[in-house]
Design goal:
160 residues, 6-stranded antiparallel β-sheet, 19% strand
């Protein structure tokens, strides 16, 4: 599973995308983002999802294209359930966006927790005031710094 990070969004606070591997199929992933509200949908999560190979995910036209994200950071898990990740994605897509508690970062964390039962707070530390999945923290700080200082199992922050 991987976080993808755009550090230029939201005045440097960043934007997070996510990807998980389908353990039942070779080189198959699902990935997505929660873009947040728009003027037409002021409370929407702005959910987007896609699936395919790593090459598809990192292609020029992908929602996780290198032109949109500068960094990625991954963790290998012993197992993962694409079905649980997709079910959680669908549920989150119907919820209302909240800057502190229901956003691109916290949504990615919820998908990771659904995907792998091993993803406890040891791997996805809480944010401000005990908010789950980094709630209240910027994606840039959480992915680049907090996962290094307060979590285990995450690989290095890689330039995309």
């Amino acid at each position: 599973m991987c976080f993808f990070l755009d550090t230029d969004s939201a005045g440097g606070a960043g934007h997070a995308g996510w990807a998980v591997k389908d353990t039942a199929r070779a080189d198959h992933y699902i990935w997505g983002t929660f873009q947040g509200p728009t003027t037409k949908q002021p409370l929407a999560m702005g959910a987007r999802i896609a699936g395919g190979t790593w090459r598809d995910m990192t292609a020029k036209g992908s929602i996780l294209a290198p032109s949109k994200y500068e960094f990625y950071r991954c963790q290998t898990t012993a197992s993962g359930s694409i079905a649980h990740a997709q079910r959680t994605y669908r549920a989150l897509a119907r919820t209302s966006y909240d800057l502190l508690t229901n956003n691109c970062l916290t949504g990615a964390g919820e998908i990771f927790r659904a995907y792998s039962p091993a993803m406890s707070t040891r791997h996805l530390p809480d944010g401000l005031g005990g908010r789950h999945n980094g709630g209240g923290l910027s994606p840039t700080y959480y992915i680049k710094t907090r996962l290094t200082s307060h979590a285990s199992g995450w690989g290095p922050v890689n330039r995309y």
